[in-house]
Specification:
Layout lengths: L9 H16 L8 H37 L1 H6 L2 H14 L2 H14 L5 H13 L3 H14 L1 H6 L4 H11 L2 H14 L4 H17 L3 H18 L3 H12 L3 H13 L1 H9 L1 H10 L3 H13 L3 H17 L3 H14 L5 H19 L16
Helix pairs in contact: 1-2, 4-6, 5-7, 6-7, 6-9, 7-9, 9-10, 9-11, 10-12, 11-13, 12-13, 13-14, 16-17, 16-18, 17-18, 18-19, 18-20
């Protein structure tokens, strides 16, 4: 074992000093190997200097990092723009502890931050699923700017979003429900938050969260007759490519008669939106749903939208299938669409007949003797 790899201690350092002193007293002694002792002592001294300098650098770095948080007098002289830049810098470095310290000092000094800064902090921690940090910012707003705190519904929607993103969907939606019940003037805003949470839940493929969201959208619909979250939840499930989401959308239609009526009224609009995203499968499933519940008027309207889409893309096979389906169900399409379909068939046949036959290129062949 190499003795120079030993852990640096005060006793080892004293021993090295003693060896140095012995060397000075008996430089011509043959009992000690002076070369080995020199290497041993010098190595220990070098390591001692390195550790000392490293500790000094670390202390200096910590002092520089905490200078702005420890100097409260300097904090009171900072402008709102300076504080906004400081928070932006700390957010970029993910120094959460320093952000919390700075917020607490702003609260003690009653330093008013701009709404943009507060919103940036709320959004950062809510999107990262940090409800405990959101609560700290709420405490600051309550003490420093209580008017804005109450006007924005105590900023509880950020807390609800943080809980949902963290995985506590039931707790987050419970907070959102209490906000919706307490602040009537902010209900339109809470609907938008609810829609964003629904979209995140479906895209993140959390089956447990989907069940919880289903419970709350039905609760909002039954208790407050607010069907917007229910329609949004159904629409996202209906447009999804996952079979489990599609089945959940069908379950919602079976559960809520109100939802079924709304879907019937907005079926054409939903179809146009889906076809803009090239989602023909969703439109076909909507046709099957309308046919299942015998909503023939809405069925014909959606079928016309789909047929027009096929005509525009010159999909002869798709148009032919729709025509056959209409004959089976006894449904007629508008005459202008039928005329466009016939014209497309004629043009397609004429293009086939007018194609010039391919000519074999002539080769200048010479017979050589």
């Amino acid at each position: 074992m190499n003795i120079t790899r030993l852990h640096m201690t005060k006793q080892l350092l004293r021993y090295a000093v003693l060896v140095k002193n012995v060397q000075r007293m008996i430089p011509n002694s043959d009992y000690y190997s002076t070369m080995t002792l020199d290497a041993f002592a010098n190595e220990i001294f070098d390591r001692h200097k390195t550790v000392k300098f490293q500790r000094s650098d670390l202390t200096e770095a910590n002092i520089q990092r905490c200078t702005y948080t420890s100097d409260k007098t300097n904090l009171c002289t900072l402008t709102s723009l300076d504080l906004e830049n400081k928070f932006t810098e700390l957010i970029g470095k993910n120094w959460d502890r320093d952000i919390v310290e700075l917020i607490n000092q702003c609260k003690e000094c009653k330093k008013l931050l701009t709404y943009a800064t507060v919103k940036k902090l709320f959004r950062h921690y809510s999107m990262n699923g940090r409800p405990e940090k959101v609560a700290i910012i709420q405490e600051y707003c309550l003490k420093v700017d209580p008017v804005s705190y109450r006007r924005n519904g105590e900023f509880l929607h950020y807390l609800a979003k943080a809980e949902c993103i963290k995985g506590n969907s039931d707790k987050g939606l419970s907070i959102l429900k209490s906000c919706y019940k307490k602040y009537d003037s902010l209900r339109s805003f809470y609907r938008i938050i609810f829609r964003e949470l629904i979209q995140d839940s479906v895209l993140n493929r959390s089956e447990a969260s989907l069940v919880i969201f289903k419970k709350y959208v039905l609760l909002f619909s039954d208790e407050w007759s607010d069907h917007y979250p229910l329609v949004c939840f159904w629409h996202i499930c209906w447009a999804s490519n996952w079979f489990s989401d599609q089945m959940l959308g069908d379950e919602l239609l079976e559960t809520s008669d109100v939802l079924l009526g709304i879907i019937g009224e907005k079926a054409t609009a939903f179809s146009i939106m889906a076809l803009k995203d090239f989602n023909e499968d969703a439109v076909v499933r909507l046709l099957q749903t309308l046919l299942k519940y015998e909503m023939m008027t809405e069925y014909v309207a959606v079928l016309q939208v789909l047929f027009n889409y096929k005509l525009r893309n010159r999909d002869i096979r798709g148009c032919t299938e729709i025509i056959r389906n209409c004959e089976v169900l006894g449904v007629t399409l508008p005459s202008n669409q039928q005329g466009r379909y016939i014209k497309m068939l004629i043009d397609d046949k004429s293009q086939k007949w007018t194609k010039e036959p391919t000519k074999t290129p002539f080769k200048d062949f010479k017979l050589k003797f």
